[in-house]
Amino acid sequence: MDRFKIDSHKLIYHPQRVCQWLEGKNIYPIYVEIAPSGACNHRCIFCGLDYIGYKTQYIETNHLKKFLITASNKGIKSIMYAGEGEPLLHKDIINIVNATKDNGIDTAVTTNGVFLTEEFSDKALKSLCWVRISLNAGTKGTYAKIHRTKEEDFDKVINNIKYAAKTRAKNKLATTIGAQILLLPQNYKEIPTLAKILKDIGADYLIVKPYSKHP
Description:
By secondary structure, this protein is α/β, with parallel strands linked by helices.
C-alpha cells in the first residue's frame, strides 16, 4: 500500500479540470515545479542538468510572490521547489516556502539536504506537505564520489534529516520526510544500509529510482 501516495496520479482527483482541458479551454495546471535556484553545491555524476552549467542565478523573491497570488487565484493546487539547482541555496527560501503555503497552495521541496538546516526546519517545515532528500549512498565514501562533494556532507545531511524528524514530532506537524536514491552500479549494495539509517533517524520512506542515461 502506497501510504504516502508517492506514485499517485493527481488528475483522477480533478475530473472537472480535465474536462475543461479536453474542451479546449485555457486552464492553469494543477501542479507546478519551480526552480528558485540555478546553482548547486554538488556535481552528481548522474545529473541530467549539468549541461546548463549550474549558473548562479535566482528567481527574484517579490516577482515570485506576485506569481503565487496569481497561481492561487487561478487554481494551482500545489508547488514543488526543486528544478535546475539546489532550491535551498536561495537566500529567501524560508520566506518563499511560507508565502506559498500562506496563499493556500500545498508546498513541497526536493533537496540534496545539505542546507536543510535547523533554521529551515524550525521556520519552514510547518509549511511543507513533504520534503524529499536526494541521498545516493549509504556510506560517506560512496556518497562523496557520487555527489562529487566532501564526505562530511553525508553526516550533515543525516543530521539534518534527524533534526527535521524531531522538529516534526515536537511540533506535531503533518510533514512527510522522505529520501530517494538513484540505483547505480556504485551504490546498489548500500541501499539496505541507507534504509536502516533513515528508519533509525525517523524518516518515513526511501524511494529507489531507476536510472537511464540519455545519449
